[in-house]
Fold this sequence. Notes:
The complex is a heterodimer. Chain A is α+β, with helices and mostly antiparallel strands. In chain A, strands 12, 13, 14, 16, 17, 18, 20, 21 and 22 form a nine-stranded mixed sheet that branches. Chain A is globular. Chain B is α/β, with parallel strands linked by helices. In chain B, strand 7, helix 6 and strand 8 (208-212) form a beta-alpha-beta unit. The two termini of chain B are 19 Å apart. The relative contact order of chain B is 0.19.
Amino acid sequence: MADFGRRRSLLNTVRLGLRLARAGGKVRMALVVVGAMVGALMILIAFSIQHVVDTQWTGNLEREPFHEEVAAPEPDEWIEHDDGTTEVVEESKPQPLHAADPNSTLQLAHGTGGELGVTDEALIRYVLGDGPSPPGVAAVPDPNEAYLSPALLEHVEQSASAQEKFAGFELHEVSREGLGYPNEYVAYIGVTEAQFPGDVDVEPSVLSWGISYADETMLYNPQRGTAVPIFAFMLAPAILLLATTTRLASSVRTERMAALRLLGINRFRTRLIAGIEAASLALAGVALAVAILPLLGWLTAGRRLFGLEWFAGDFHPALPAFIATVLFVPVITVLTAFVVLRKISHNPLQVRRKAANPAPSYWRLIPLALGTVALVLVVRGDLSIGAEFDAAINVYTFLAGAVLVGFGILLAIPVFIRRVAGLLGKNTSSPSVLLAARRTQYEPAILNRLVGGLILVLFIATGGQAVILAFEKTPQYQRAVEATSGESTYLRVDSNAIDMSADPLEVPEDPALTTKQLEAVGLVESVVPLRFIRGNVEYSDTGEMDLEILVASCAELARLGDMRGECSDDAVRTFAGHYGDLEHLTVFADGQEVPIPPHVSATDFAPETDILYYDLSLPPSLPELQEVGQIPPTNWLVEVPANQEAWAQVQQEINQIAPEAWVAEPQTYALEEVANVRMGIWLGTAVAGSIAIITLLITAIDNGIARRPQIAMQRAFGVSLRRVRRSQLLQALLPLVVGVPLAGAAGILAGQAYTALDVSGPTNTYWAAVAVTLGLAVGAAILLALATLPAIGGKIMPQSLRRE
Amino acid sequence: MKPSTTDPLSARSNQPIPRITGNDLALAFGQTQALGGVNVDVNPGEVLAVMGPSGSGKSTLLHVLAGILRPDAGEVIYRGRKLSELSARRRDAIRLREFGFIFQFGDLIPELSLAENVALPLLMTGMRRRRAMRRARWMLERLEIADVADHSAAQASGGQVQRAAVGRALVHRPSVVFADEPTGALDTVTGELVLTALVDLAREHDSSVVLVTHAVDVAAVSDREIVIRDGKIAVPKQFRPLSALEQVR
């Protein structure tokens, strides 16, 4: 009987929990559900990306050829121990995933995307003979037959050079099974023995497709690491979001639970009620997230995100990860609810009386102060403990400073906000400002921590912007921009006339190209001939070496780029300190060996193109060179329009004239590097900023809801809606007004410190970063301000006093 | 002796120009008839007690007279102006500048100090901070809570909060103070202190007070009282001497 009573009592407790979940108010319930949904969705997205990476890795193993020869013993790995002994470690050999075909005559050779005019990563395979079909391919293609992925087929339709490559080919499509991702470039091209790029006599037969290893370490996916930061990056904000929304729900719950505790309901029961209430809302959020995920997969399929592309069907978490998420979100929600309940256990009466929030301690400013000092030291370059340690000490000081400032902002923001709001409240005559300031001053710590989160994001964005701007000032970036978007740029054409492996006294063949031929190439605007001769040098540090030496006058060099330092037409020019002192120099030209006195006039020559490089240059007016007669140009700088299509066209035409000629394009890696940094910073800012904003919005809305009775009372007193709104807006803006200058200043300092680590010195181009920060802050402020309005909206009329 | 009313079915006073007049006020919330044809006058400087059991319509009448609720029928005339004919903005302005309000739990803004809460109506009407705060502190001195002027509402006791609410209601010298169960949450002694302060200050400022209560002792300080039952005025009581208040003093 007693048991029955206890069970029924427990059941009633559960019912009460469910009832209270519904009683929290529609808006609050919706906020918690949305918070749980966004949090769960982010975790599911992170797991889905992980799954995509894993699936594509598995898919790649499925497309790996298995041939008998590979399975044959290979040189084993030797490990040398400290005591001088060695140990043979037998390497794990690939195993076929499917039954091998012993009669297979299929041979495979790899090509590159460049052969088809594709610059992205591509899987190009030439096949010869017959055997098992690769995944996604109906039958091994015969000569003049090819299977191409849909993306490559589309490329062929659009590219004249690719069409030329496949002229007379029967083209088929590689099906989904043969693709890692939707826009992957894959080709299986059937060729004749004569066309086969590999060595037919040596290349082993493919017995089956798909490999595995007995040793699981061999199956390690090197790309797996790319998903980890994304995962961590999304998991942390997701947990923050979940915890915040749960705490919000708890703010209502806390009072109710305190009342229940005062009534004598024990700690277990109050926890049970709170847990059921929190978990039921969290589960609703998770259910929504699970429903939305496939839609997200469908929307993102075929788009390049996080450096990946995926099929909609692959974008889902693995089952264990899915189960873990579905359990994790309610569990963390319930745990957070329990943490909040601690206060009730200690002193329920105090909770009921709504004791004032204590002022944050000034000790919280210490990390920010220490971090700032560290960054200032890096910027000023004052840190030195010995030349060999300087770089390391600066890097570690920067890292420590940046981390301290980051954490310091989170800790210090509540102090600053409270202090500024206190001063404002003490001195203002405006009732709106007074209300906003005082409310801000006594805001719960959690809200100010969230504002701190947003300020932290702004700090990262500002610092990142300063770094990007510094990168954009580098000569290599400027040159890359000029090369791709200026009026014209230079390609370097090398006729490969100097064969460094040949006898130096052998008279070289005439160059395969002439200046006139190059001038006649379409799109070429001008041609600068360069003369190189073969030389043998001996430096004090590096010893003897053969190299190509540029023969050009100072006037010619000046045409090619900025000249710094002295340039002399009377002596050898080399770069000071590169290899030590030049001790001996001989040049070979026209079958002669001509010693040149190693009198060096060191210059610093910075060519404005990245494609012209040499270690040594000689003035053509040197008396010793007069003996060798006219040196024909073997290299040229060809001026072409500054776009990559033009470069490809020029390159194609030059190769038609001289197939062995080598054309070097301007280096544009700096563009990609900066784009990657920018992408990383923006992505980080976007994800962290979105979460901070969502969390703040949820909190602001909740805050507004909590203030409704107070606002209704003010409205009854005759306070206009405009004044009420103004006060709410000011309250939303005040923390940002305090935090944004801090974020801007700290971000610029961090950006300066980061760039100070580089030889280029600290950046001073940060005004654009400030503009970006202010832009983001204004955006955040507008969102926040708008978020406060629905809660208090126009619906709160004086008569609302009765309802509220 | 207080003057008696002439019409036993209305709360009309015999004074010539009432400050607020409610004519045939009727208001229903769904099926519930909160007010069913109430006539009432509030005269200058008088303390009108509105009594009745819970749910009888006392607070509704207070809210209608203050222009917070709009009656379904009838009209409220304040200083010769029909409130229903005024724009919402104008009604807001009247409540802000000419009325004062006290509620059962004080309902101060918890983040503001008691002095700032009291100064709020003055600041709302454009007074400079220094002057507003000086007047608020003076008011708190009158209410004998100057020592906690800088405490927040959360730090003050219920009686202190309620006295500060009285100060807030009267600091801008309103024409009418609407007090809805101002002592309902207080013990007898503190309640009497609050009531004394309210009545004294109101008389000093020549403010009328509409005092909603169901406590007979509280009503005893009034000049006149009416009893509401089921949304209608029950037979109004005669004016009585301020016996209870005098006893407190």
